[in-house]
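User: Can you help me understand a structure? I only have the sequence.
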Amino acid sequence: MAEFIRARSDEQKALRLSEIKLAAQRQFAERPYHEITLTTIAEALGWSRANLYKYVSTKEEIFLALDQDECHAYFEALLTALPDGAGFTPDVVAEIWAGIANAHRDYFRLGEILSGIIEANVGIDRLVAFKRNYYQGLDALGDRLATMLGIDRASTDALINAVFFHAVGLQGVCFRSPLVAQALTELGVNAQPADFRASMRDFIAMCLAHYTR
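Assistant: Let's start by predicting it. Here is the structure, written out as C-alpha cells:
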C-alpha cells in the first residue's frame, strides 16, 4: 500500500478530494453503483479505509460531489454554446443541446440514483450546498433560454427538467449492465442500442415546439 500523507492545507485537502472523486468516477464507468464501496475506492487509491474516512463519511458524499461537478459542467457547456443574442432557431437549439447532453452522459447516469440514493445519504450541509449550486445553474440557463426562445421562466424550468428526466431514462437504456446483457442473450433478445444523441435531439425539438408554439 502506498504511503498515505494526510493533507494539512485547504489546497491539499482539495487535491485529496479530487483523487477520491477520480477513483470513484473510474469505477462508476466500469461497474454498477451498488458494487462500489468505500473499500473499493480506498483500495484503488492505495489507502486504508480509515484514511478515506478522514475526507468522507459515505460513498454518497463522493457521488454527490461528482454529480455537482457534472451538473456545473453541463450547465456551463449549454450557456457557452447558447450565448446571449445568438438568435438560434429551435431546431438549432435542439441540435446543440443534444450534442452537449451526449457529451455529458455521466451527469444523467448519476441522475438515475441522485434523489433516491445519493441525496438520501448525505448530511444537510452538503445537500444545501449542492442544491444551491444546482439552482444557480438552473436560473442562469432558464434566463438564457427565456430570452432566446421568447418564453416565460416557468416554461424554461419545465423544459430543462423534461430534458433531464428523458435523458436519465434514455441513458439507463443505453448504459446496459453486463447482467442485463446476459439476461437478454439468454432470452434470445437482440435489442438494438439506442442512438442517444439522435433521440435527445428529437425529444428536445418536440419539447421546444410545444413551448414556443
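Now, to help you interpret it: The mean pLDDT is 91. The domain at 1-56 is CATH 1.10.10 (Arc Repressor Mutant, subunit A). Let me know which part you'd like to focus on.
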